[in-house]
Amino acid sequence: NFDDPDVRLSCEAYGALIARAQEQRFTPNLALELARRTPLGAYPLLDYLVITSDTVAAGIRQLAHYFRIETTPIVFDIRDDRDAVEVQVTAPAPFAVEYLASLMTFHLRQETEGRFVLSVVMLRHRPDDAAAMSDALGCPVQAMSAWDGVTISREVWQLPLRRRDPVLRRVLETQADDILTRLPARLGIALEVQRTLVSRVAGGDTRIETIARQLAMSARSL
């Protein structure tokens, strides 16, 4: 029911909608083009949790921590123990990875006076037009990679955000934390199962025996 502005589509329904649209009128790098046209504030609470942070690093950590309020099965894994920071993304479809990398670039570029740039976009699939995506995002796009996500230089990671506001951020965090407490917990084995399912739901084998084997346990234990 599109008359309801708060209606939520399942990932399956959204994926089917995108696939049908592409069949009717193919648009190369559709996720990139949608991100380019998504205004800041389209996801009000999540967007402002990010942009009221002090730095790019703090903003992306807010994104990773609070993304679950959007109730989508996407998981972030931030690895900052190496020269360049890796933000690995587990998502149900390649479209979601391209959209997130593009939206992150366009919005954080705006919030850092044009200084934000990714080092590399890592994709486990091959996008429609990697060269065009690279030009739009201002960084290399590495297709058929071992993982999905982005790498960010230390210098960019520490860039200040122009609308940092600790008072407003604390108010927003209170609201977001309240939402999180009312969502089902995703801890321990439940989180591991979710990550495994997310990586396979786009076309892999999701039988319980297969998931259990990947988690090194019996199907009965799982």
Give an account of the 3D structure:
This protein has 222 residues and is α+β, with helices and mostly antiparallel strands. It contains ten helices and five strands. The chain has a five-stranded mixed beta sheet with strand order 1-2-5-3-4. The longest helix is centred in the middle third of the chain and has 18 residues. It is globular.
Short précis:
With about 220 residues, this protein is α+β, with helices and mostly antiparallel strands. Helices cover about 50% and strands about 10% of the residues. The radius of gyration is 18 Å and the shape is globular.
Weakly predicted, low-confidence segments: none
Mean pLDDT: 89
Give the helix proportion (percent range): 40-55%
Strand numbers in spatial order across the main sheet: 1-2-5-3-4
**DSSP summary, beta strand count:** 5
Shape: globular
Report the structural category. alpha+beta
- What pattern of helices and strands is seen along the backbone? HHHHEEHEHEEHHHH
**Annotation field: number of helices:** 10
Strand content: 5-15%
